[in-house]
Structure formats: C-alpha cells, structure tokens
Amino acid sequence: MPEVKSYYVIDPEGKLTCRKCGVGLVKANAVFGYLDNAFPVELPVCPKCGFVYVPEELAVGKVLSVEKVLEDK
Amino acid sequence: MDFTERSTRVYKTKQLYSKEELAARESLCVHEQPAFCTAACPLRIDARQLAGLCAAGDFTAARAAMERAVPFAQILAAGCEAPCTDACRLAEAGAESVSIPALERAAMRHGQPRTGRGLLKFKKKKTAVVFGAELFTLVVAAELAGKSYPTTFCVAENSASELIARCAPFLDTESAAEQAEVLEKLDLKVEYGRELTAALVEAERAKYDLACVSLAVYSALGGGNTDPVTLYDEKLDVLARPNGDESVIGAFYNARRAGVSADRLAQGMPPDSARGDEGPVASRLYTDLSVVSPTVRVPERGVYTREEAQIEAGRCIQCECTECIKGCAWLQHYGKFPRIMTREIYNNVGIIMGDHMMNGAINSCALCGQCSVTCPNGYDMAEICLSARRNMVETGKMSLAVHEFALRDQLFSNGEAFLCRAGPGSEKCRYVFFPGCQAAAVSPDAVWQAYMDLRARLEGGVGILLGCCGVISDWAGREELFSDTQAQLSAALSALGHPKIITACPTCTRTLAQLGDCVGIWDVLLDIGLPDCAPEAVGPVVLHDACGARGDAHTQDAVRKLAGQLGCAIRETEYSGDRAPCCGYGGLAGYAGPEVAAGMTAAALENTSGLQLTYCMGCRDRYARAGAESRHILELVYGVPAGAPPGISEKRRNRLELRRRLLRDIWGEDEMNKPLNFKLDITGEARALMEERMILESDVIQVMSSYNDSGEAVLENDTGLLVARLRIGNVTFWVKFTENGGTYTVHRVYSHRMTIETR
Fold first, then answer.
1. How many structural domains compose chain A?
2. Chain B contact for A72, CB < 8 A?
3. Which of A40, A64, A72 is nearest residue B359 as measured by Cβ atoms?
4. Mind listing the domains of chain B with CATH numbers?
5. Exposed / middle / buried, residue B425 (Cβ in 10 Å: 0-12, 13-18, 19+)
6. Which of B235, B323, B373, B687 is the least crowded, having the fewest Cβ atoms under 10 Å away?
7. Contact B753 A34 (CB under 8 A)
8. ipTM of this model?
C-alpha cells in the first residue's frame, strides 16, 4: 500500500484526555474534507470512542486558510 | 434552500454576457478615452502627459516623449498650429487654455537630449527615395529612415542647414542649427545639390521600391491626383501630399500617413488597408470642471523658463473621468475602473478550473448602484456583480461560506422570528406594518412604539408582519430562495386581505413593491402628524440617504420633511440624495469583504460629526458600530434610542423577544421558551470571539446541550479546560469550557467548515 502523505501532524504528548472514556488521546490518522477535497492528517484521537480533536490554532489557522483557498476554486 | 456544500470538482460554466453585451457595458466607461487635447491632435501627442511631466519639472522625460512621437520635434514645437489648445476644456470654465506648444518648446529647451543609440535595427530590404525639399518630405524622409528603410533624400539644397532653412523657415537660428545636426545624425542618405528635373526624378525613381515627392516635384511630374487619405498616386507610383494645406502640423500628419502607406506598399498591400483610426478624433471623456479656477496663461517671452513652464503646466487639470471611483470605496479598494472590473469579472466567471481571483470583488460590492448615478454614462456595477453572483450560484461556483450566515439569518427572520397577524380578533386588516428584519434586530423598542402608535391612530386595523423582505437572498444571488421568500410573503399578505404595507426601510419598500401597495412610515407620519411624544427641537444632524432610496426622490423628500418637523437642522453629506454611498451593509459586502465594507462605512462618515440620522436600520447599525452617534429616524420620532449596537446573537434575541412581546401583550399568547437543563455562563473573552467568528449563542447552546447529553469532550490536562464539539449544518463548532456543578462557563469558541473523519 502506498504511503499516504500527512499534511499536518500533531502529537498529543499525553496532554489530552477523553472525558467520556477516561483515556489519553493518541496520534492517529484522520482526514479533513472540504468541497470534495481530502487532506490526510494525523491528529489526537481517542483510541476508544474515536473523538478527533482539532485544536483552536489549527482550526483558525491552517484549516481556515485552506478553506478560503478552496472556496475560490 | 439547499445548504449542501458544492464540489470544486464540478466543471460547469455559463457565459456571463455575449460579446456584444460585454462591449455595450465596457463602452460606457470613458476613463480610458484620450484627453481632449490629445484627441484633437492629428499626431495624438499626449499633451496631458507632457503637461504633467513639465509640471513635475521633468523636462527630459517630456522631451523624450516628444522625440518618440515625431522626428524633428523642435520644428513641430516651434511651428505647430496647436489644435490641442483650442480643444482645452479650461476655456469652458472661464480659464485660459493651456499653451501646449509653449510647453513643448520649453521641454525641447530644458530637457536633455536622448543619449545612447537605442536598439539595433536591421535594415529592411525595400528601399525608399524622397525628392525635393519641403517640411512634408523632410519629415517623410526621417519617418522612412526611422522605419529602417534604406532611404535616400534628393534635394536641390547644398547643405543640411540650407535644407532646414528651406523646410522650416520659422525656426530661430539656434534651433535651426540643432535640427540640422539632428538631420545629419539620422540614418538617412541625403544627396545635396541635385537638379530635380522630371526626367531625373523618373530615372532615379525606378531604382527604388518606394518614393515620395515634394509638391513642386509632383507638379513637375504632372501629378495632381494624390489620394487624400493614403497620399498615394497610383499612376505615378509616388507618395505626395495634396495641395492646399501648408500648416506645420498638417505636414507632420501627412508625413505620418505617408509612412503608413509606405509600409502597406512595401508589404504589397493596398495602401488603404488596415490603417486604423488616424487624425483627430472626438473624445468621449468626461471631466469635472466644477473645481476649475479661472487661471490665465503665463506669457511666453522667448521660451519659458523652467519655473514659468512649471506654472503654466500646473494649470492643466489633467482631464480624466474619476466620477465613479471618487464616491465608491469598493472601486477605491480595488483601484480599478469599471471597464477593467467588468472585464475581469467576466473572465472570472468563465474560469472552469483554478483560482477565481475576482470572487472577493464580486461579493464585496454593496450593489448600491451609486456608480450608476455618479457615472456620466450610468455605468452600473451593481447589475454586473449581481449577474455574476447569480451566474456563480447557478454553475455551482459560489462559495456557500461567504453568504451562509446571512442566508440563515434571513431564514431565521422568516422562520422562528416570523410573525404575521392582523389585529387581535380579526383576520384581515387595512394596513400591515413591515418594520424589516434589521429594525426588529437593532431597535425593537422603536418598532414596538411605532406599531402601537399606528394601531392607535390608523383606522381599519393595522396588522404586523415581522420578517425579512428577502433582499438578503437576492443580494446573495440565490434566486430560488428569493422567489420562495416572495411567495411566503405574498401568501401572508394575501391571508391579511392584501393590506397596504407600511415599511420602515427603503430597501424593503423596493423589494416588497412587487407584492403590494407600499408606503413609507415617514409618509404615514407626515399624513397623520407626529405622535405626542415626538421631540420638536432635535438640533443639528447629518442626514445619510439610504442606498435603497436611490432614485426615490419622494422618500428622500419625505424623510427631510419629517426630520424638519422634529426640529432637525439637516446638514447634507457630500454625496447625498441619489448620489449617496452605501454604509457597507448593502449587497452583503460586510460578510464577503469586511475590510472593504469598513472602508465604505468610513467613507460615508468622512467629514461628519455629531448625530448621524438615517432611515435605514442597516446604516444606523454600521455607523454606530464605527463609533458614530447614529439614529434611525423612528428612534427619534418615538424617543427610544436603541443604544449600543447589538451583537449577532443579540440581534436574533431581539427579534425573538419582539415577537414574543407582541404575541403576549397584544394577542395574549405567551410562548414559554424550553428551559435549558444546565446553566450557561459565557465569559467576555468568549463573547468577543463569538462576535468576531460569527458564532451565535444558539450554536454554543447546541454544543453544550449535546455535551450535556453525550458527555463527549476532551480534557486539556495543562489548562483544565474541557473541549466539546458539534457539527451543525456545514460547520463544526468547538467550545472550550469549565464545568462546575450544573454550570458551564464558556471560555473560548471556534469553528471550521471542513469535515473531519478518522481513517
């Protein structure tokens, strides 16, 4: 299987805990999607319930700028 | 309304206009028309640029411009009859026209000659010969040499200075010597002392491909039938000027035309083909003469000194049409004139794949139509931007993100906050009050008071219709939602028995005009008189006309009358009445281009102080937001100033509260809000973020309700904050909060439109 490039990687480094499951979030594969475009990333994810955490600086930073670029496509 | 996100992988376009429709629009913009002086010059010398350079003291550049335009620029400067001066518009404004030839002379005197040899030119294969000395042939010889034809100039004179004296006897000694030097430096073979008999000319002529003759030689050859446009005598196969015009500018113009004919002949084409526009033209340029002061010409004693030339050139008003851009912050922001904007928008719409660079411009126009009034030809950018928006929606190129908040706000106004009632106990009414969505959102008390007053003083019953007129969807180019909204309102009006609609917003009046008989509340108040509570001496106000009232002199006048009755001493803005700009609310500009819209607000408030009086709640809100003291006229009439501008959530709450209050106090129906099973505390920091990031309190409540039910959140170990999220429609909202018993304290909020999934 070809290796999929990750556009963005965040390691939770044990700083995040899933409130519901009570376990630490781990770095795992996720995909951002917008207007039929997909961006593989690695984000903090709960290993039990699959809650994907998007930090504020990512949401209002890179995610927002990519959204704006795609909106003008 | 379909709120599904579009796909960037749908490749569909639709032409915005046909070529003819595009050309018809573009031709209205006269900004790029030549200045009147330039248009009058057969050589199209850019006198406006020349004056500009002289005024700036750059005589070298001015001289270079002259020398680029014609050979022997000094001869032209000395002898030109100057049709440009006659065309100068200053004369119409009571000033003396600019003496352009005097500026040309000054440029030639004070400017440094060009240095360097210029580009290496390869000689053409066709050869040319010019016979006989006169100004026309002298310039033709230089033109042909300049066009790289190996050229021979046969003259009876014996030297360059003799030749110059013969061709330009009006030159002073110094200039004549300089021009003789110029002649000698030309890449031109001059054969002096030739006896130009008909036999010799004919014999020599045969050796060359192209020939031009002076009038004397032409007569000797028996010619007399040169073409007035191409200057070509087909029978004799020579170029010659027609008899009659002895002017200096005429000689230069004829020489230029002969040069064009020579090119055509050299290429084996008929000399009259593809010549384009030649000679003087009528310029369609518009220039504002209202600010011209009646200046007089600097007298020319000899040649102007640098200072004299600068003063004279400084009188030039640099004719150009900037009528639209002067009043429009949107055009100023993009720094382009309507013709260019139109072409770029047209091209933008045609892009199938790739970046649409003009989307921002298309969506940040206020669609206010000011340009259609300020432009002397009525250029209407609003029509162009709106057509482009509709086109983009139709072809799936319009980003939902730009307008979704506003569209959902319209749906909110016509959904949760919608109210349509005749009076209590009746189903029909003679009038219905339609205050508009922004009036209810920004100043619900004024709406309440106005409705109470209308109910008390108008006979036949006054119903209430709370909602949005639909202009938001119209501005967004969403024709489907707009027609749905019109249908909803039409059905509501029909249920009320088609009452007369009393509006409090000129934009609503315009939008609702298709659905029924509308009258502005200002007209009603003028008719029935002001209520007892109305003030009588408001004092000085700056009146801002609403862009929705453009072309509606009746409303503009009615508001002034009403303000007069309130004791307002009205000060008009620079752009008032039909020329009024938009406050930045129109066309949803504030959503697509907040910085452009801020520029519009600032421009509308420029040079104003004190109380800003409006009759559109959008204007009232934006001016207040920009720090001005602003009032909608209804706030004045009923003495209920709305205070500080409400935030986006408060605007929604105000509409709901107004609806609830009307139902409770008039119809005796109390709708209880479903209580939340938690307490919510939003910090000031979070509130500011919500405003900036367009996140509503209702969104935060939904996220917290979801958390309350599911317990799904992430704990940030180092800050102790919990982070919950919920996807609502096309947006994922995130709330950072702390939990204390049953109370959630919201610290930060953010959102994104991208979806996120694990893989």
1. 1
2. yes
3. A72
4. 21-30+335-398 (no CATH), 128-266 (3.50.50.60), 401-662 (no CATH), 679-752 (3.30.2310)
5. exposed
6. B235
7. yes
8. 0.96
